[in-house]
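Subject: design request, 264 residues
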């Protein structure tokens, strides 16, 4: 992990659609585990956390969806622009045979790099990906080529119409899968934890909280019940760690560090 901010030029940009782009960087010297994240700094705008969507042939990919001031400003970043980068931060996924990857929305991003590594090891895995509509699901082509993949959208624009959690049990039993990886909206993750526990499966889940320092100092991303700092001991938690947290689905800290109702 490197807390030292370094600047890197963007070597390429891929447009998934006008509100979702991938940015490519070379010469990141640190070893990067799937599920880890970097803080990206746009001079004059802000610094925000982003998962690694891929590392392939020495090139790191970061995939960003425009949702607010920082991410909208990032959509204007061009090849050759300099970006401040700190990281990689946090604990990532470990690699297991016979797994099910369950992703929702931009939570799919870290699962893409995980899938590349599982595939390189020759491990068997299957995938369920969901979102509001097809354009909210990144890497449709890659996942379809790499593994049996079930798509589920709320509007039915790709795959089944519904929620990803409706399909977990059927796929686990049909394909004899023993490990779950998941990343996505917290409501979905809570259902994934219930399904995994109900079926006696181990899991690793990537959770999100508002993050600032990224290195465990400021306390912004501490979760109740366990005192886990998601930027340092997470964002990926295993079953024992995740089950000790009492705030899932109920509270979180806002940008000022104040606890607020998750639903407000
Ligand atoms: C570990 C981690 C990995 C992430 N990976 C990705 C990714 O690969 N691709 C992607 O598009 N987004 C990712 N995000 C979310 C991304 O950090 C936010 O979308 C971004 O910070 C929004 O900033 P904004 O100014 O554009 O929007 P805002 O209007 O400020 O916020 C929009 C939403 O993003 C959340 N957010 C804002 N700032 C932060 C912050 N510092 N930490 C966490 N959440 C924040 C807000 O709570 C709100 O829900 C990740 C977040 C975390 C914590
Ligand atoms: S973001 Fe500062 S402790 Fe996690």
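Subject: RE: design request

Done. Sequence follows.
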């Amino acid at each position: 992990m490197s807390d030292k901010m370094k600047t890197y030029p963007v070597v390429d940009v891929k447009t998934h659609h006008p509100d979702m782009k991938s940015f490519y960087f070379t010469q990141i010297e640190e070893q990067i585990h799937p599920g880890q994240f970097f803080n990206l700094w746009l001079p004059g705008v802000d610094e925000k956390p982003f998962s690694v969507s891929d590392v392939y042939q020495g090139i790191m990919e970061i995939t960003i969806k425009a949702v607010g001031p920082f991410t909208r400003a990032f959509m204007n970043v061009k090849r050759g622009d300099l970006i401040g980068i700190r990281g990689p931060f946090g604990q990532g996924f470990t690699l297991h045979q016979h797994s099910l990857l369950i992703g929702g929305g931009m939570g799919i991003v870290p699962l893409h790099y995980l899938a590349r590594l599982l595939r390189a090891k020759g491990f068997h895995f299957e995938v369920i990906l969901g979102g509001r509509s097809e354009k909210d699901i990144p890497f449709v082509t890659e996942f379809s080529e790499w593994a049996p993949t079930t798509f589920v959208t709320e509007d039915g624009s790709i795959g089944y119409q519904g929620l990803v959690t409706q399909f977990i049990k059927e796929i686990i039993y049909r394909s004899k899968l023993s490990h779950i990886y998941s990343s996505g909206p917290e409501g979905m993750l809570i259902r994934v934890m219930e399904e995994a526990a109900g079926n006696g499966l181990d899991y690793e889940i990537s959770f999100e909280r508002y993050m600032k320092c990224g290195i465990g100092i400021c306390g912004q991303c501490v979760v109740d019940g366990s005192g886990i700092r998601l930027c340092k001991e997470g964002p990926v938690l295993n079953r024992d760690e995740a089950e000790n947290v009492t705030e899932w689905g109920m509270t979180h800290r806002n940008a000022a560090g104040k606890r607020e109702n998750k639903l407000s």
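The chain is about 20% helix and 35% strand.
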